[in-house]
């Protein structure tokens, strides 16, 4: 018998670590080759890792909810003598997967502590005063050099912990503590990062959707066989039409390199609530689809996301995101930008209200568009004129039915 050490493989996601979501085996279990071993989550997707060998599990590293570095020891197996050497040679080759589009994936890689504590004298002095052990700090500078910004992150984390302790108070017998990990923790981290790094400019505009609702009802009645049209396909078609004159909102901003990447194609992210949290599946090349094709893609992608069946390509590459709370949409909201995008547009609840129309007070179907923009890239005037143009399209919706040019 021999020992085989299975290390966390590089699953081709461009990350240096992954979170352990669920173990499918335990120490002492006898497993077969290709038997499900553990689910891990990267920045892009949840991946099932299967056992590379048949044998008995001697030990496992990492509890559910903890993160492990790519290449670190994951499981130790007891296997037949020659099998360990054979599998070690095979697994030295990196695991490959279908990559996302090169120009649409955030290339930032997590940094890890080197244990060397490399830093300038000023940073070392500050760390000493704050009681921070530099050997445990991950330096974001070239060559792993620790910078003041790295110390700032540690201080923010400390403050957040202290504030949380003050707010939550001591534990109570009738209270339940639930550990946040997996997709819910990833969402929390992304939302925090978005709000921390992006100065959000919120803008709300009122839209008279009376004509749009008349048109939508007519199309649903006369083209029932093509599927049901909701509000979102019309909003996406309006965005596509307006973006031609406002290319700055259909963009990514790499603040690390100081680069804005504008896209001609519109890859519309659809914010979708699931039992596991908020996911954003993507309609790639939305500009090539008509209203019914958009409606079918929205339904298909949303259903797959809620069922946990979205593939990796369906969850990456959005250039602008739309969101809707449907009947619970409220009067207005401040949606959080999905980085590295620079804009997100939300639909609020529609309601009948008395309005002045052509000099008379009449009942109209009104709704609000709530939007947020990265104020570093999109200034207030551009945001206002963009949303005003979207409003005009929705209030005069006949042009949104036209078949797009493919």
The fold-level CATH name of the largest domain is Chloramphenicol Acetyltransferase
Characterize the quaternary organization of these chains: single chain
The CATH H-level superfamily of the largest domain is Chloramphenicol acetyltransferase-like domain
The CATH C-level class name of the largest domain: Alpha Beta
Strand content: 25-35%
Helix content: 25-40%
Number of strands: 19
N-end to C-end Cα span: 62 Å
Order of helices and strands: EEEEEEEEHHHHEHHEEEEEEHEEEEH
- Tell me, what's the shape? globular
| Averaged pLDDT | 84
The biggest beta sheet is recorded as:
7 strands, mixed
> Uncertain spans, ≥5 residues at pLDDT below 50?
91-110
Report Rg: 25 Å
Task: Provide the number of structural domains.
Answer: 3
**Strand pairing plus helix content: what structural class?**
alpha+beta
In a few lines, what is going on in this structure?
By secondary structure, this protein is α+β, with helices and mostly antiparallel strands. 28% of the residues lie in helices and 25% in strands.
Q: Which secondary structure elements does this structure contain, and how are they paired or packed?
A:
Blueprint: E1 2-7, E2 17-23, E3 30-31, E4 36-41, E5 46-50, E6 55-60, E7 67-69, E8 73-79, H1 81-91, H2 121-130, H3 148-168, H4 183-197, E9 200-208, H5 210-222, H6 231-243, E10 251-254, E11 259-262, E12 268-270, E13 272-274, E14 277-279, E15 282-283, H7 291-306, E16 320-324, E17 343-347, E18 351-357, E19 360-374, H8 380-395
